[in-house]
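Please review this pair:
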Amino acid sequence: MSTNRIVRIVVGLALIGYGVYSANAWFYLGVLPLITGIINWCPLETKMGTCDPTSGCCATPAANENTDSACCATPAAAQAAPKQAVNFSFTVKKGKIEVLGTGCKKCKDLEMAAAEAVKELGSDYEVIKVEDIAEIAKYGVTSTPALVVDGVVKSTGRVLSVDEIKELIKS
């Protein structure tokens, strides 16, 4: 008998006992977990996604102990049906390049050079311009423009060439 089933039976009996003892409506609330524990079927498992009737097994280890339950049992029609492949396509951002600066010409030049380096490498880096002084101060940068690759300050106080930025991205 699975732990999940035992817990439902114990909770159901406890609620029924409390309802009888205090003479209130808790009795009715205890009937549901008791019955689902006795017949070994829990509607919450199907709603919460821990039971997958199409695959014939439940996701929770406790539910896998007793696969003859109504939740985990697979109908014959589901067993005969072929499984369909699911294809997921998504793009994962490799990283983030931040150009720290207040908007001067050097800062804009560094931003353009970083964008060109990312383009030439064909990488998935995202180039972001950060002009907020408070955000710049969080990195401890005192001289702009500055280049930050994946949260690490790589250069401060000068405009890097496209080749220099490509080397920093690779390392």
About this structure: The beta strands are 51-52, 57-58, 95-100, 125-130, 146-149, 152-156. The radius of gyration is 30 Å.
